[in-house]
Amino acid sequence: MDTSPASPMTYKDAGVDIQAGDAMVDLIRPLAVRTYDPRVIVDHFGGFGGFFSLDFPDKLLKKNYRDPILVGCSDGVGTKVLVALATGRVNTVGIDLVAMNVNDLVCSGAEPLFFLDYIGTARLDPPRKAEIIKGISYGCVQAGCALLGGETAEMPDIYRGEDFDLAGFALGVVERRRLIDGRRVEVGDTVIALASDGLHSNGYGLARRVLLDKAGMSLDDCPPELEGRTVGAELLRPTRIYAKAVRSVLGRYRVKRVVKAMAHITGGGLVGNIPRVLPAGLTVRVKRDSWSAPPIFGLIAAKGPVDDLEMLRVFNMGVGFVMIVAPSFARAIMNDLRRRGERCWVLGKVRKGGPELEWA
Q: CATH class for domain 18-178?
């Protein structure tokens, strides 16, 4: 019988590496700082909370809010992280994480102020986790918000191997009189579509089941439908961030309320998200021939097969964001969006009816 004293247990023996966590903080600090503007109080990085002033300290930049409303959003990227894990490319899902939150947030007309992230993982690999944060940082720069803080939780009893999951949280602000909630939508309003960059971050359970399981494709395959791109590269296309383009439009109309409703086209597709912002008794007549869906959607539909209605209920089908506007301003708004680099077109018109969309 061994009577020698037992070696003392450490947290690392249980699977949690405190030193790796400290190294992680050093790696992500510059990635957070690059997203700051003068409203971030920088003396407190690494403390127990991030500090953000609602207004700029510079008199020239002050917004002098009269009746500000704070808007909060929370979202993740779903099983897209499995594609990132399988390819070893984890630097783009952070962009998706920011996009899924700030695109929701700007639907109310709010300015994104700051973003917080949560990463749950089996073990801390500081360089790898820094790659994820690099994507989050880049997404925050695109959105014009500060990466104010976050949490990385090492939980080997919950996650296995290289597994990880992401969640994000965004906070924004809008003046009460500028709040956009769809109440002012009326018959005859124009519906503008902003193009997506592919699947974005929704429908990956079905996409992976069809392409990788049923069709037997690998992530390195390059089917002719994808025009030279591999399946993995297509599935990892980052979600497009619309925040700055939308905020640019709203900034041009500070008196006239020409933008009446907006919808981020995520899970549920056009049929599930546009009705969410319409008053009772109204619907949208969608011009189905006004755009062509990107090739990835046709590939999924063919390999499933997946019928048209299911495709429209699951995927964005090439429409990532929708703005409902006064018809006399539609052309000017689309010109502004195009100057900002967005591909956009008239998707349809508001009509009496509902709640289902009509297709023309």
A: alpha beta
Provide CATH 3.90.650.10 ranges for the chain: 190-359
The mean pLDDT value of the chain amounts to: 93
The model's pLDDT over 240-284, given as tens digits with 9 standing for 90+, comes to 999 999 999 999 998 899 999 999 999 999 999 999 999 999 999
pLDDT digits (tens, 9 = 90+) for 54-99: 999 888 889 889 999 999 999 999 999 999 999 999 999 999 999 9
Contact 119, 164 (CB under 8 A): yes
CATH homologous superfamily of 190-359 equals: PurM-like C-terminal domain (3.90.650.10)
Burial 64-84 (b: 16+ CB within 10 A, else e): eeeeebebebebbbbbbbebb
Helical (H) or strand (E) element with 150: strand 146-154
> What backbone torsions phi and psi does residue 17 show, to the nearest 5 degrees?
-105, 100
The CB density around residue 295, as the number of other CB atoms within 10 Å, is 17
